[in-house]
Amino acid sequence: MQVEQERHIKTAVKCEGISKTFETKRGKTYVIEEVSLEVIENEFVVLFGPGQCGKTTLLNILAGLIPPTKGMVVVNGKPVISPGPERGFVFQSVSLFPWLTVMGNVEYGPKVRGIDKETRQKKAQYYIDLVGLKGFENAYPNQLSGGMKQRVGIARAYCNEPVVMFLDEPFGALDAQTRYLMQEELIRIWETEKRTVLFVTNNIEEAVYLADRIILLTNSPVRIKKEFVIDLPRPRDYTSEDFLLLRNTITKMMDKTL
Amino acid sequence: MIVNKRVQSSAAAAVSIFMFLLIWHLATRFSELGNILPSPIEVLTAFFVGFVVPVGTHTMFVHIVWSLSRVIPFYILGSAVGIVLGITMGWYPKAEAVFRPIFEIIRPIPPLAWIPISIVWFGIGEGSKWFLIFLAAFITVTMNVYTGAKVVDPVIVRCARMLGANERQIFTTIVLPSSVPFIFAGLQVGLSSSWATVVAAEMIRSSEGVGWIIISSLDVNDTVQTLIGIVGIGTVGYVLAIIIRGIESKLCKWNKRGI
What we know:
The complex is a heterodimer. Chain A is an alpha/beta fold. Helix content of chain A is 35%, strand content 26%. Chain A has helices spanning 2-8, 55-63, 102-106, 108-112, 117-130, 146-159, 176-192, 204-210, 241-253, and strands spanning 11-24, 27-40, 44-48, 70-75, 78-79, 87-90, 164-168, 196-201, 213-217, 224-229. In chain A, β1 and β2 form a beta hairpin. Chain A is globular. Chain B has helices at residues 2-30, 40-49, 60-91, 93-106, 115-122, 126-150, 154-162, 167-204, 210-220, 223-251. Chain B has ten helices and no strands. The chains are: A alpha/beta, B mainly alpha.
């Protein structure tokens, strides 16, 4: 029982006192101020905040793409100092490799890590099927729609079998209809292949639909304002009373100034 | 559908060329222009006759082969050096700091300005011609490839790092392929530039080649001969461009630019 308990609360991402400052002529400007958070294994955490508040900077620091000015990030017990394959990243601007096919993109991670062709293609095929792109293995990115490109992005990040997935407003550039569909799909994929997810968005509906826990951020500098545990059963209904209530509560607390 | 489109564009090209020749013909026939410019029928007849009856000491075909044999090896060499220098300069800041200033000074000098010095360095034989052709290809290819390696999307690079690529893999799997369209743009411009330089190169001293046809027409005061040289240069340049474009669309299926 004790062992079971410990396994369930294994910490996947932990950061303490993260700050990021930029030197300007008028002195130090804080982008992120003293952010500490802990994410447990297989938890779906949404970092939610208004406009250009620096959420992406925070996510980049957590993923190891940029170093913090102060503080430390630990993923899976190891300090994060540089980008690395145990952390998957899905960028807002899809950023597929345009010269590679869907298969080429998805197998890229295992390929550069030196995994043999047969193993990696089998794995890539699994994730291509999982994101619903069976039959598009040999298509090039410029032949795909926006939603399909993001599916490839998700499959590519998944195929490296990372401990944590970072998604930076991945559906921000999609039209409303495709966006709903992709949210649904993301939950389906995540429920089939559980991972720890850190998801950045400025869309409250998306946040409430996806998250196990929403971390509400303040406007620049970024600080944690409040956390909300969302325990609505999945699949969630955008129009249910509980959904709307949560949506209103969180929206009211959000910083309105820009 | 695609075949239809291709037929359409070939038809349009044929009509456009035919109209050009027709206007040329009418202008020489019915205006004063006829006194200083031979008609297209005369020129094209002479051009095709040139394949059987020698112009100077060789037939047209031999002249073209001579010119190509000068251009192609040194175009390839110049392009190869250009690709290596361009991509290194574009991706590695240290290489850029060392080579860019020198290159920026050499870049605006037209290949023709090198003629005297190339004769001093390489003599009046083939060497100076090769040097000019090499230079023409090298400069344009370097410039294009440099731009290509410079504008590699930083998000794509970050993406590859995140997926576990090391510095060497970033260079071979990201910087290189994303520069390919620029390499081809450079090869395309570089080819026209080196093919055009052949005329200048063959001006130095030669007894064969399409450039020679033009230069020697001055001595014999034969406008028809000048024009068949021009037609030869134009046609061969056009065919070479088509070949490069064909290779590009094979290698860059992912990139719509080439089509």
